[in-house]
Fold these 3 entries.
Entry 1:
Amino acid sequence: MTLLTFNASVFCLEELTKGLHKQLICFSVINIVIAFTTIAGNTLILIALPKVTSIHPPSKVLLRNLVASDLCVGIVEITIVIYWISIVQEWWQICRHFYFAHVIGATISLTACLWTIIAISLDRLLALLLGLRYRQVVTLRRAYVAVIIFWLFPSFGSVGVGFCSHEAWELLLITSIVLCLIISIYCYTRIFLRLRHPQTHIRDSAQEQANQTIPMNITRYKKTVSIAMWLQLALLFCYFPYVVVAPFAYREIQTRQSSAFFLSLHATVTLMFCNSTLNPILYCWKIKEVRREVKDAAINLFS
């Protein structure tokens, strides 16, 4: 069964959504608020980032890509709101079109978010392991190539798989989320152990005597790791319920037309969208320069 057939035959059935109109209206209101908050917050961050000088250029490219993908998530979220409204109004043809648009848009933007989070984790680990070679290995050009791949693969790979098989698409999306969590946990565990290792402190003390700029670099590095870890924790909080619920929900919706699993699935999807709203808040909280530039950009926009 292809993804298109699956959507048309299951997710826009009156029998599946009958009696859920109040819940869908509630979902729509919540997601409209989340969508516009996401769009506004990430737009301000995109305006502010070019003026931030404290972030290494390749790392800034990855951060800007995460912000851009979060912005796309906010735009895609509007399509699922229209999908829910079409169910309430019983516009079944519109329902099919907008659910399908939502699936394609969410697959591309959410996968880009996941891959960028993985890249940020690896970037922080490489910065610690490579030392002086880091700037030679992690270049601006390679960062841009990685970003292009992050958008091309979900556009042609994930969506292409979805056209062939809904089950394969579901497995690929859940695998991407789990892989992101595993790789990120591995990276931050390595970073934590390396920074806590006694030999690291001895080496850092020797370097400090030779070069007084090292302590400042280590301090800045720990701050960037802290930012990356908070982004990862926010993603874990928002994405993990979907990983748990989705495999059961899709099967129950397809085989039994379960309204309870239909609501549960869309509740976890809404929580995933919340991640793109939380990230701008984390940038402003953890990066002082970003907070200052966002404040100036907001004043200029609304003055």
Note: The two ends are 54 Å apart (CA to CA).
Entry 2:
Amino acid sequence: MSPLVLFCLVFCSQLTGGLNTPLPPPSYGDYVSILSIDGGGIRGLIPAAVLHYLDKTLKFMDRTASLAHYFDVISGTDTGGLMTAMLAAPSSYDPNHPLFTPSEVALFYKKYGPEIFKPRPIWDPIKCPKYDGVFIRNITSEILKDTRLSETLTNVVIPSFDEKKVKPVVFSKLKLKTEAYLNAKLSDICVATSAAPTLLPSHQFENDGVQFDLVDGALAANNPAMAAVSEVIQEHHAEKEILLLSLGTGIPKAKDKLGDDNDDDSCLLRWLGEHSDTISEVISKTDMTHSYLATIFPGLFPAENYLRIEEYNLDPSMGAVDNTTEENMDSLVKVGNALLDKKAKRMNVNTFVPFKLHQTNAMALDMLAEKLYAERQLRLKRKSMEKGGRSFTETI
């Protein structure tokens, strides 16, 4: 970030500081901004570390900044879905502020991760799924209370999968005008998208007369970026360019797979046997393909508008989504922090091998923060000047 640009941004921030207003809609700006967070259980500590850096960068320019006031859409699956709700739900103390910051998300994971993935007692006759799911249901209800999808500070998109109806369910705030039954409690949505088969039980609930029987959103879209982009294009009809930040939770080295876990294999085989029809449909149905195609037509967007941050060579000892030892959780945070100094990568869609760019992930995030800040200021200015009003700075 050049000193001149930095000075200008900070100066403008002083003019607008303390106003903590919601992000005006994309109609006032040039871009639609999306944050997408993959699934991955406790490995969510990796994107949490990356988001902490972005949050600090934005706060340097705007001390009242929160991610929900800079992204038009926050999307997540599984652990990413839980993070999405935490970053987008309003605080009970200040409805204009989010419930959690990225650093507080990391603290939440380190404090409660071991409880979420607490093994059943050895005398428990139920062996599958591996965890009873009671704690995650209780803690999400406690922190999110009765907050519904419609009440988030920005738009959210959280995929899940209905194992009885055998189809994806995308809880999208952008759909609520026409699909009111999706306006469920965020606590129910979080438990549903996190219900990884063999690890946590499916989640059943009813909303607006519709019955849901949901499991992990990873069965529909473990990387929800395309689902979020599709939602935006369907809403805005490609009128605006899209800025997309997509965060992974680490990909373990395939060739270094560690030893087998017989208990997990037993659970997996039992689940596959009971849900063979579900697996068959997941493989053959084209629901998500239609979603992907909606992002291709009517057009594509510049490559530089898309930043994917992922650790493609995660130490296999950190690959488990439920390893909540203090040592492993500390290591995952270190992986997230180390990613900032690594070269940004982009996937070669012909070979599916990522290649390095000329800048680090931290540099790329700095540039993204500048764009997000400039976009927010542009929208605030245009909104204040509509219908012949005074300029934004004149109203200070």
Note: Strands lie at 31-37, 73-76, 155-162, 167-172, 203-207, 210-215, 241-247, 306-309, 343-348, 353-360.
Entry 3:
Amino acid sequence: MIQFPKNFYWGSATSATQSEGAAHKDGKGESIWDLWYRKEPYKFYNKIGPEDTTKIYENYKEDVKLLKQTGHNSFRTSISWARLIPEGNGEINQKAVDFYRNYFSSIKKEGITLFVNLFHFDMPSSLQEIGGWTNKDVVEYYANYADKAFELFGDIVDRWFTFNEPIVHVEEQYLNQNHYPMEVDPKKAVQSAFNSQLASAKAIEKFRKHNLDSKIGIVLNLTPAYPRSQNPSDLKAARIADLFQCKSFLDPSIHGGYPKELVEIISKYNLMPEYNDEELDIIKNNRIDFLGVNYYQPLRVKENPYEMKSDAIVMPEYFFTPYIMPGRRINKYRGWEIYPDAVYDIAINIRDNYNNIEWLMTENGMGVEDELRFKENGQIQDDYRIEFIKEHLEFLHKGIEAGSNCVGYHLWTFIDCWSWLNAYKNRYGLVELDLETQERTIKKSGNWFKELSKNNGF
């Protein structure tokens, strides 16, 4: 039997936008997802928007009971900035305060450790209109929002996160056009990245002043960059990919500063953000207590063999290109490679290069399309999900045995949730959601997860 350390956190993660529903209810302000869906609903799978997500806003009392029934001793969700402060800055929405206090308190009453994240891709649309993360004023508004959240919910929340996967909103808003406002502007991408890191540090600074009996961290999606070969050009491509994808937020969050080579690259191509020494000091002096790590797939890269035009837009592909490894295992529904070995590599990297900081796996999971195919006697028999979790836990355990300071594992996700442009195309949950009836049914994996938590291993 594979046994995990005592008091290991077993649970799952979701976000406000992906689970709450009630996108326009009880005074909630508009987020960029509400705005985008209103403008271009055809871009969302089956035209399902954020109004029709899992509706935890209405069903949280029953859903929290399902947390217990599926073995959760911990759970992560987020606060909707636009629900709490509808305009992003200014007046507090009291109905939102009441909802979150009731929701969070019900989780705590079940003896479940509560992790709460402050930002999960859901910028209030009123703030996006003035530039979102490219605007320093928004950094201050976020710090004020974080300060208010600590004041309102600090007595309930056990652990806080400032951001979930900040590299994603940077890339998808200003490089890849998968998040609103769908621009291609590397200069804005770099400014957004710096401002997001500064905002994280300012939130931590606010957190320290409250003297709460809790910890604060950041959730980063760490995708190890594996080179196609040991050729120097492929190795260089992997090193630069790691600078962009991992170190750009990992180093300032833990070490308090940016890698020299990353700064040199950004400077060489005239992409340096607006910043000052005071801001660098804020980042240096306000580091995380612990780290959340999301992992789904590896990043395999090779050299870019082509010479770029002198006036070409400087994109990540300028320095490396994706490499599709022959014979790879793949989740065909999501198009992602399945490579659990990377979990061990992440664990050792944190141990050796990041002060062996306390960390937990905050997301890992498998999305599958049309899961009703696997329904027998009223229950989805998702053995594929159980095997996926087992494989990743084996490598996580190996990393822990080697001394990496991992304290928990959170699956994505609890109840089948809405997944941005993909809506409900792929299902990830331990609990099935019937979109028409809103009925919740525990899958085979949900029963297995309860045993995993009970036995602290498998």
Note: The chain has a mean pLDDT of 97.
